[in-house]
Amino acid sequence: MRISAATSHNLAPVRQALANYTVRHGDTLASIAKQLGVNRQALIAANPQIRNHNLIYPGDTIEVPQGAKAGAPAAAANEPVTAGSTSAGGKFDYNRIDGVQGNPNVTPAFISEVEAMAGRLGTKPEYLMAVMSFETGGSFSPGQANSAGSGATGLIQFMPNTASELGTSTSALARMSSVDQLQYVEKYFMQRAGANNGNLSTLEGVYTSVLYGSPKSDPNSTLWSSGSTEYRWNSGLDKNGDGRITAGEAAGAVRGRVDGNIDEGGTAISGNRSGNPSGNGPVDTTGANPAGIHNVVRGDTLWDIAIGNGIRPSSLIAANTQFKNPDLIFPGQKVHLPGISASGTSTTSTTGTSTTGTSASGSSSATTGALAGGVLGIAQSFLGRNASDLKRSGDLPMDAWVPNNVNCANFVTAALQKAGLINWHDNTVSGAASRLKADGWKVVPASQAKAGDVCILNYGGHIELVAGNNNGDIKLIGSNNINPDGSQQVSYSNPYGGAWYLTPA
C-alpha cells in the first residue's frame, strides 16, 4: 500500500484567534482541535511556538484560530469533526493518526502487515495504529522505552515479564524492526483477547487489552472505581468525575491521537459481526425477574454476577449453558442463579461456613463466602479487614511493625504460610517473588493463571493473589490502599501495570 500525504486537508486561512486555550493533563493537539471544532493543521499553523506537535504540556497556552475546516460547517465545541480523507478502496487515511506521516518506521510493509493482522484478529487496522501511536508517543519505534522508567519497550510497551511470556525479551524486541515486532503484538492480542470474537471490535477493546490486560469492548464498562489503588493511579482518566473509570474514558486519550472520528468509515471488521456475537440466542427482555434469575444490565459480567450472589463463577457458567461464550453477555438476557430458591435465599451450604462467611477468629466478616479452599479461601475470609487490625489480631502470621499502607507482601506471604504453601515470610514484593521462584514457582501467562496463584503487578510494586480467571478476565484479592487515609484493606481488584503470574510447581 502507498502512504500518501493527506492532500485533502485544505486549510482555511488562519485568522485572529478567538481565544486562548490552556492545555490540561491528557490533551493532545488533535483532541483540542476536535473539542473546539477546528482543523488540527489549522491549530498547528496558529501555534508556531510548538516545535514538536506531539509534545505539549499542561499549562501551555494554545491560540485557537477562528477558521473552521474549509468546505465543512463549523462544528459545535463538543462534537467531533470528521477530517482527513479515505484512500483508494475506502481504507482509512492513516495520516490522520499522529506520528504516521513521514515516519520511517511506518513503511508500506508495516501498514500492510498491520492490515493483515487486523483481519486475523477481527479488528480495524486504524485501531491498532492509534494504540501504537499513543503507546510510543507517535514514534512507532520498536525500541521506544517507557519514559517513566518502568522497563516497558516497543510498539505496545511490552513489560519485561510480558515479553518473557511471549517467548522473547524487551532487549530482543528493541533490536527488531517495526515490522518484525508486529508478530509479538499479534501474539499478545491473541493471548489476551482471542480472535474474531468481538473483543477487539471497538477501539476500547483494543486499548483496554493493553492498558487493563483484558479487553473491554463496551465503552461503558468500568475498569476501576473510586477507592481502589488502580483508580487513584489513573484518576485523571475519570473525565466526568463520577467515581469510575470506563473503557470509553480510558480510550479517549487514544482518540486524541486521531484527526477526526476514528470510528467512521475505514475498514470493515471481518469475522462475527452479528448483533448478537456470542451466539447466545434471542435476547429475552420480557417478563418479570423472579428470584433465582438475574436480568443482565449494561456492564455486567458473569464473574461479577457470581461474586455478588455468593456463587462460584464456574458453577454459574455450568448452570447457564445457553451462553456459548461466557465472556459475551448482553443486557436483557437472563442468568440462572444456581442454589437460589424462589424465596431468594441460598439453598446450598458450604462446609463450616455460612453464605456470609466467617473470619479465621470466628468473627463475621463482610464477604460473599469462601468460594475456594486453600490459600484463596483463607484470603477471602479476611475480606473487608483493615491491615492495621489484621496485623494485631494474630489471625494471620503478619509482621505488626509494617506500616499500614504497605502490607501487600505481608498479607500474601502470611496467607501462603497459613495455607502451608511456604515456610518463610517476606514483607517486600521483590523478595517474595524471588523466594517463590527459588521454591520452584513458575511464571505462567495470564491465560493459565488460576485461583490461588500469585500476581506481581504495578510494575513490580504490588503483589496479590489470583481470586479467579474467567477466560482472561482476572480478579485479584489482596491488601490494597482503598481507605481514605491511604491505609490498606483486604479487597478484590484487577490486574494492572504489567502484571505477571506465579504458580506452584
Automatic annotation (TrEMBL):
Low complexity composition bias: residue spans: 270-282, 341-365
Coiled-coil residues: none
Region (Disordered): 257-292, 340-365
Organism encoding this protein: Luteimonas lutimaris
PROSITE patterns: LYSM
Domain LysM, residue spans: 19-64, 292-337
UniProt-recorded name of the protein: LysM domain-containing protein
